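Exercise (ungraded).
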Amino acid sequence: MKASRYLAAGAATVLALGLTACGGSTGSSSSAGGSSGGAAGAPTDDSKCADAEVFCIGLVTDTGKVDDKSFNQAAHEGAKKAAEELKGFYKYVETQDAKDYAANMAQFTNKKYDAVVTVGFLMTDATIEAAKASPDTKFIGVDQFYDPAKVTVKNATGIQYPEDQAGYAAGYLAGLMTKTNKIGQVLGLEIPPVQKFAKGYEAGAKASNPGISVATVYHPAGDNAFNDPTWGAAEAQKQLGQGADIIFGAGGNTGNGALQEVAKADGAGESKFCIGVDTDQWNTVPAAQKCLITSATKELSQSVTDTLKTAQKGDFEGLTTMGSAGLAPFHDFDSKIPADVKTKVEKVVADLKSGSLKTGVTL
Amino acid sequence: MSEWISRNKMTVGLGAVVLVLAYLYYFADKTTALSMYRYSWSYAVPLVLCAMVGVIGERSGVVNIGIEGQLLVSAFAGFFGAAYSGSLLVGVLAGVGCGLILGGFLAWTTVKWRMDQIIAGVVLNIVATGITSFYYKPGQLLPALMPHVSIPVLSKIPLIGEVFFKGTGVIALLAIVIVIGIHLALFKTRWGLRTRAIGEYPSAADTAGINVIRMRLVNVTLAGALAGLAGVFLSMDSTSSFERGMSAGRGFLALAIMIFGAWRPLRAAAAALFFGFVTAAASQLQADRVINVPPQLVGTLPYVMTLVVLAVAAGKVRAPGAVGQPFVKEGK
């Protein structure tokens, strides 16, 4: 009797987790971003997506939210802007569970959307499969790379970013700013885009300050690695406790938790600093303003908008695009960062962009 | 005292060994050790509180699968209550209140209506995820930081004082009191004896004149307040923001810890600290590049350990006898 109870408990728990996932993914699709507010002639629903004149854009997030204040949000804003400029229709789905990628993309391909943006490295394989199944829809994979030797689909393109360059510049700055010669980074899941940030950060720090030690920690779990601010905060606190004075938080809400923890510490903004990721987090995580000297950014929004426009024009070549990456403004810390540090960092950013400086990061 | 020690040789021995090792590491490398212990404790606080919810529920004969949902809704209510009212106290009360309400929901449906306890808990979790996702608004800030205090004399103790009593949040301090309080209440008071009776053999308890239904209702409802406190800790103390799904499975982990701790408050607290330390150690190994433990593997550890304990202690550790069974008074 008791054994069967526990069996039932276990089964129900698994079921519960599964149900939560399914429930969430379909529910959030209704909260569509809509299209161009007020632009004349813009469609208001997706019933006419099969028409050639109506350009419909669908966006599928990774297991994150379009208001995650970093990665997914930036891609979402880029797609929304493209829809406004092209007078098209835009709708998004937030993925709750990795096994729903295909189903979420099918919501758009079934209605003959013209372009589908898939956000995140983890969706690479699912995007290729969907592109094969729906040759009339154009797929844009943010943070994805399709090896031309292996992937032959013509209707999919990946956008990659030189995260290592942004990380390098941030690390270079951190190396110059640290007083304790110890810095840390609190990271999301161990996947190439995050690894590139992390390794770039370390390489940059070592370039400006050879004696520095960098603590690098990735989130342990798989499914909530980008959405566990509690863990991020605890990890940041641990690194601060061990003498790190600059923390790089790179991993969606997990990283945001780390930034906020640094902002709470004694000496935040005076002797302890934090660095954000993906977008200018000065604007997106106001709670971290007390310590946020800069953010290692990717030009997500702009590259998504540009690629969508290219897709609409038709000259969609199925090639991998390389977006750009850099550092966000220093905001209130502009006056607190020594002038020579700023000059050096600006030179590094420029050299990375021109290609005369290499980060040396390999995965 | 000596009699108590001889009865609990294992526990005392293990505790002493752990304590000695902890102090050895502390004196060998103070900064690293302290930061790891503090990490363990802040990791353990919500787990300890949630495990207490499970302990009280199951000791009274009610399985609470819905702790995860209680945690999430309380974190939500605490954060937004404080953000909109501008008062931390309102936030804390809102969070704890939500925990109580959801505890009451679970108690009423399972005890009064005799609904399947597992299903009631699952329903709670699904509703919690839905509601908190739907009403979530980004861009809110807490009006202030939660107070952190140092207890005068206790904070001077090396290691223990520095980890538990120096600059810690009020909720973390409260958690210590709560665990000890529940332990004493469960094993030394009339309430505890009755609670254990209605969880083991409710019809015998009923014959002895205990109102099983009322007692289960009250216990499960009040335990919800602890889940509320844990939720407040998540969104207002350990971080200062609410994110959707931020409970991240901690409510389920707490159930594993409850079983690991053999349905006993103090052991469950020790188990939570142990898992906290293992997590800290794993991230430390990563940071120091000693050996690269795959982080995913570490995440499974609590569950694997629970399986091991259940397998090894099979027969010795057992759940309260009437767990999961609704009580039906004879002759009705």
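Further reading is listed at the end of the chapter. For now, observe: The domain at 25-161+302-309+316-322 of chain A is CATH 3.40.50.2300 (Rossmann fold). Chain A touches chain B through 53 residues (CB under 8 Å).
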